[in-house]
Amino acid sequence: MVSGSKRVGRLRARSKVEADARAVVATRAVAYVRVSTDEQAESGHGLETQDRAVRAFAESQGYQLVEIASDPGVSGATRPADRPGFGRVLELAAAGAFTVLLVYRFDRLAREIRYAVTTVSDLAEQHQVVIRSVTEPIDTATAMGRTLFAILAGMAENERYVIRDRTAGGRVVKATKGGFAGGQAPYGYERDHQGGLKVVPAQARVVRRIFEERRKKRTLQTIADGLNADAIPSPRGGRWSVGTVAYLVDNPKYRGAVEYLFRWNGTETHVLQDGRHAAIIT
User: Fold this and answer.
1) Tens digit of pLDDT for each residue in 267-281?
2) I need a labelling partner for 206 at 20 to 30 A (CA). Which of 2, 69, 251, 260 fits?
3) Is 268 exposed, middle or buried, given 0-12, 13-18 or 19+ CB atoms closer than 10 A?
4) Cα 128 from chain centroid?
5) What is d(CA 112, CA 21) in angstroms, rounded to the nearest whole number?
6) From CA 86, how far away is CA 113, in angstroms rounded?
């Protein structure tokens, strides 16, 4: 009888070691939680809610929860790989630290279907990681689960576009009525937590100084140099530049008006309207 080679025995032994290692890792999970600033304010599904849910689910399924990676205040329109928190997930996956990724809902991965589907596929193909939602009965380890996931991701993407259309329309309506239609509050103002602007007295004095010096025909560079010489912080806390001064004196909000240029779905709407906020410059 021909005897077998020792190579086969070594391969069998190696396969057993690898199988034992996979069995250990199979019980390990990493959770990923994400919420945008608007979502947390509107829905209440903040990081704490998601954190509690994934921990409870991991315990109920017998998973060893290795780590919870988070992206607070990050839009679902951002590619997962471009987010700091999800970057940590990819690091752990590449290290073979887990095999199951838990999310509160699949739209925590991304709201654009191409990002969501490719993320699921890449994790499965490159790192043998499956994704489970703790609130949706879909298992991406199965073909049917991946199909249902793709359908769900498509619905989430459509919902995102509907929300964007509704938000854009609401901003236009608000602007035409003289309201503050979003964006960063200009220097000299702050949000009043009621959808409008209120004057910040200390900054308003700087704004009036700039307009007064400009009225006296002083150059933008001279104005910037004077503010820096007096150690007055710029809107971002640094030094004043010609561009910063120019942007400020060109802003009609200081005269009590609102101006916006909305571009959406191939259309452009210019709004210049008396505002509902107090003017700093009369």
Assistant:
1) 777 778 887 888 998
2) 260
3) exposed
4) 27
5) 35
6) 17
Does the domain formed by 177-274 have CATH 3.30.870.10? Answer: no
Among 104, 107, 48, which Cα is nearest to 72's?
48
Tracing tokens 């308003």 back to the chain, one arrives at 204
* Contact by Cβ (8 Å): 120, 149: yes
Residue 215 DSSP class: H
At the top level of CATH, which class does the domain 13-160 belong to? alpha beta
124 vs 188: CA distance, rounded Å: 51
b/e 212-240 (16+ beta carbons within 10 angstroms → b): ebbeeeeebeebbbbbeeeeeebbeeeeb
- In the block, which residue shows the tokens 């909305």? 262
**Which two structure tokens, joined as six digits, stand for 273?**
């309207």
User: What is the pTM (predicted TM-score) of this model?
Assistant: 0.47
Assigned token pair, 210: 């700039």
Token duo for residue 121: 């596929």
Per-residue pLDDT reduced to its tens digit, 22-65: 444 568 999 999 988 666 544 545 889 999 999 999 999 999 99
Check for a shared fold between 13-160 and 177-274.
Answer: no
**Residue 143 tokens, joined:** 């073909």
CB 274 within 8 A of CB 256: yes
Separation CA 99–CA 92 (nearest Å): 10
* pLDDT tens digits for range 251-270: 888 988 887 776 666 677 77
Q: 189, 268 in Cβ contact below 8 A?
A: no
**Which parts of 177-241 fold into alpha helices (H)?**
201-215, 220-229
Nearest to 50 by CA among 73, 33, 68: 33
| Residue spans of alpha helices (H) in the chain | 6-25, 37-43, 47-61, 84-94, 113-127, 143-176, 201-215, 220-229, 242-249
Domains of the chain by residue range: 13-160, 177-274
